[in-house]
Amino acid sequence: MRELVLFGVGGVIGFIVDAGIVQLLVSGPGWNPYLARLLSFLCAATATWLFNRRYTFKATRNYSLRGEWMRYVFAMCGGFALNYAVYSTLVFHFEIVHRFPALGVAAGSLAGLVVNFATSRFWIYRRRP
User: Fold this and answer.
1) What are the start-end ranges of the H helices in 1-64?
2) By the 8 A CB rule, do 125 and 60 touch?
3) Which of 48, 83, 93, 119 has a CA that sits 20 to 30 A from residue 73's CA?
4) Model pTM score
5) Residue 29: exposure state from Cβ atoms within 10 A (0-12, 13-18, ≥19)
């Protein structure tokens, strides 16, 4: 339960990074919301990895720093695929989400949460005998 709560805290941090960057890129320089989301995901995945490595799964170190980051980002791609599908659907169908893509990030983040926790807990930070 502790890990799930801390993973949720990391998720909130990731959401703030993700939504902030995508909104900034779309509203400021006028990036395409679909492309902006790819960059914001990478930034958010890195932020959540840093948090989860330090707090959520601190007792488990199975890989080198670089190896762990690469596995973590790869593992988050499963949740991101679901997340991005929800996000893209909302951006495409609703003008308000196209203008304010942070709304789509929120909906997509909820969709990907379970997949991301499972891949983190049972692959990246699994306890070895």
Assistant:
1) 2-27, 33-51
2) yes
3) 93
4) 0.83
5) exposed
Q: Is residue 52 part of a domain?
A: yes
Q: How confident is the model at residue 129 (pLDDT cuts 50, 70, 90)?
A: low
Per residue in 73-112, pLDDT tens?
Answer: 988 888 899 999 999 999 999 999 999 999 999 999 988 8
Alpha helices in 28-128 (DSSP H): 33-51, 65-93, 95-99, 102-119
- Spatial separation of the C-alpha atoms in residues 45 and 13, rounded to whole Å: 10
Which residues span the domain enclosing 103? 2-124
Domains identified in the chain, total number: 1
Contact call for residues 19 and 102 (beta carbons, < 8 A): yes
Q: Considering the domain boundaries, does residue 129 fall inside one?
A: no
Q: Which residue has the tokens 């995508």?
A: 22
